[in-house]
Task: inverse folding
């Protein structure tokens, strides 16, 4: 550990950076189940969290882990779990519950390769669509990602902030390379990063509190279990008291509230980084560890006078459509760089006015996508042969 | 406090069929809470999915109606978050022993201070009368039209085997006994498990010529007996009622709180 520029520097893994970010954000409850490549988060949480006064529990499976963090969140905890693809599949039903009942919580998925057990120790980014549509029913979701440890730390804090602000589960969609990669992380001093705490209702005891009556800005002030307001929480369609209802108007309004509170605020949820986009003729769009190789390509080609830029997405969902459309405008080509069979590529094609100019540079074999892989695709697009 | 003050009467009438045993069990729980003098703001009721699991909506506590089978996992999070709260978990037999069986045994193993009350009517009522893990062999259901061949779970033995520190059984006929057992279960410092045999005249009764609700309830006096009774010796097939296990063991949430204190000092 080294002091540097006001903060403490550490040389650690991405999974450890998640724990540092969560502790900074004030996590107070963690429930999980071991799974590669996310296990270090559980290990470090069980060690560090009690030292900060928080609690950890190893549950019997991922379903229980997700349920337990929702229960703890209702008592006022900032709660989190971490897993990988197979465990993320098991969590989906309870993630839907958290969407429906508007429970703030953070779900980390350190992605690995393939459907089913796949390649447990190899990298992939193939849960992008599972993060979006993994749970059943129409809904909106927030999913965030990062490519380097400083950003992993920062985006983990943001995940907690957004969970509290929008009262929603937030998926932190990392990948095996980011999770296991070691690099320097400088921990900022306490006051440097904004930490948003829960909005608590100011309705006094004895006055009827409506847990699901949104304010004008769409936010729902909460009252924790054990407090002075007793109310019902359910995964059924519900009215402003949280009591089950099958009234079409209640259902329609609730569906719109759940989707609109996130989709209509896409602009304020969008996090991204731009590299040399101003004069770029070719734009790469990437995220997570793939963005590291994409940036390498951009820097190499820039050295050779090739006008190339990179848009690195930190917010995957709600898809930052406006940002992608704006930065793709007027480009000769747009190349989406990712480690799946084109999950973000399809989204980008939908967002831009010239989808025929969008290409995919990917790897799906568990091997980390390198700058060579991207260069090969660029050569084909630019007519320079393979 | 009058018992009705624990109810959210504005959400009545409740959804249960006429003659259903679940209302009697809700009555037992509420009277037990009243007897214990628990403050309403200090009680959380967590349920899963099924007929039984609609109970929390009618109770004026902090109530959480969750997913099928997962009530104990949610309740574990609630208890860890606020260990000072009393957490009660009404469950159905399918909810607790089929889809939620894994959570049941692990919650018993941990010995976390929750009170699980399984309302066992041997059938899935909400979906219209399918077999559950406690449907007796040869009994009929909509998914066992020629009689069930699946052996039934003995829930008391299951939870005993999983390390439950308080394990009891009663029925909807024995209302006073039910109330006394629930009082002891809530008082117990650790995981407490109460199986209440309940009647579903609408589905189980109709499929199995069980007769009316009162006839089904009366049958509990013929099929069950108090623990260690002479009748049990004479008729070993009878199901015993009573408290089978009541032991003091390290409770999970309070043990963890102690551990947090130590961890903070060592930091």
Result:
């Amino acid at each position: 550990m080294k002091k540097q520029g006001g903060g403490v520097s550490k040389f650690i893994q991405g999974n450890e950076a998640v724990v540092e970010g969560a502790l900074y954000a004030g996590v107070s409850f963690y429930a999980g189940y071991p799974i590669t490549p996310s296990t270090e988060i559980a290990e470090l949480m069980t060690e560090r969290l009690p030292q900060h006064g928080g609690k950890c529990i190893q549950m019997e499976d991922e379903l229980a882990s997700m349920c337990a963090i929702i229960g703890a969140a209702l008592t006022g905890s900032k709660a989190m779990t971490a897993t990988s693809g197979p465990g993320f599949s098991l969590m989906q039903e309870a993630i839907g519950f958290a969407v429906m009942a508007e429970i703030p919580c953070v779900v980390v998925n350190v992605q690995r390769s393939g459907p089913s057990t796949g390649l447990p120790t190899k990298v992939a980014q193939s849960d992008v669509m599972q993060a979006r549509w993994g749970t059943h029913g129409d809904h909106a979701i927030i999913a965030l990602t990062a490519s380097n440890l400083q950003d992993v730390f920062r985006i983990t804090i943001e995940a907690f902030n957004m969970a509290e602000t929008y009262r929603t589960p937030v998926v932190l969609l990392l990948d095996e390379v980011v999770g296991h990669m070691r690099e320097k992380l400088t921990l900022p001093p306490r006051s440097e990063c904004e930490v948003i705490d829960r909005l608590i209702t100011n309705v006094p005891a004895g006055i009827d509190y409506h847990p699901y009556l949104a304010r004008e800005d769409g936010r729902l002030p909460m009252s924790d279990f054990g407090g002075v307001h007793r109310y019902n929480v359910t995964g059924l369609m519900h009215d402003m008291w949280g009591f089950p209802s099958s009234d079409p108007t209640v259902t329609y309004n609730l569906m719109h509230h759940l989707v609109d509170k996130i989709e209509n605020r896409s602009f304020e949820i969008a996090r991204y980084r731009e590299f040399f986009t101003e004069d770029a003729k070719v734009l790469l769009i990437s995220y997570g560890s793939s963005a590291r190789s994409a940036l390498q390509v951009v820097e190499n080609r820039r050295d050779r006078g090739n006008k190339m830029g990179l848009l690195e997405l930190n917010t995957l969902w709600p898809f930052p459509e406006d940002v992608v459309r704006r930065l793709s405008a007027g480009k000769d080509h747009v190349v989406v760089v990712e480690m799946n069979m084109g999950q973000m590529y399809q989204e980008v094609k939908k967002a831009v006015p010239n989808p025929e100019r969008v290409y995919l540079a990917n790897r799906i074999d568990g091997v980390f996508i390198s700058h060579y892989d991207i260069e090969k695709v660029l050569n084909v697009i630019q007519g320079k042969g393979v | 406090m009058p018992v009705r003050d624990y109810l959210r009467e504005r959400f009545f009438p409740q959804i249960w069929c006429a003659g259903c045993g679940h209302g009697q069990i809700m009555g037992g729980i509420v009277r037990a809470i009243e007897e214990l003098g628990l403050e309403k703001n200090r009680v959380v009721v967590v349920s899963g999915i099924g007929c039984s699991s609609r109970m929390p909506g009618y109770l004026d506590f902090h109530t959480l109606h969750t997913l099928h089978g997962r009530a104990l996992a949610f309740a574990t999070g609630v208890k860890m978050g606020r260990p000072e709260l009393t957490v009660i978990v009404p469950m159905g037999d399918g909810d607790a022993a089929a889809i939620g069986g894994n959570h049941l045994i692990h919650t018993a193993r941990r010995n976390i201070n929750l009170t699980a009350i399984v309302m066992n009517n041997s059938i899935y009522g909400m979906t219209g009368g399918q077999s559950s893990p406690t449907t007796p062999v040869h009994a009929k259901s909509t998914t066992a039209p020629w009689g069930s061949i699946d052996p039934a779970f003995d829930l008391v033995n299951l939870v005993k085997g999983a390390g439950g520190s308080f394990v009891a059984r009663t029925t909807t006929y024995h209302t006073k006994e039910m109330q006394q057992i629930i009082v002891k279960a809530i008082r117990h410092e650790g995981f407490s498990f109460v199986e209440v045999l309940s009647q579903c005249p609408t589905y189980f009764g109709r499929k199995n010529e069980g007769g009316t609700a009162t006839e089904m309830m009366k049958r509990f006096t013929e099929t069950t007996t108090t623990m260690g009774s002479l009748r049990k010796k004479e008729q070993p097939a009878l199901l015993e009622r009573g408290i089978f296990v009541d032991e003091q063991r390290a409770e999970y949430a309070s043990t963890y709180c102690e551990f947090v204190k130590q961890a903070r000092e060592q930091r």
User: Anything to note?
Assistant: Chain A has two domains: 2-187, 272-381. Chain A has a mean pLDDT of 96.
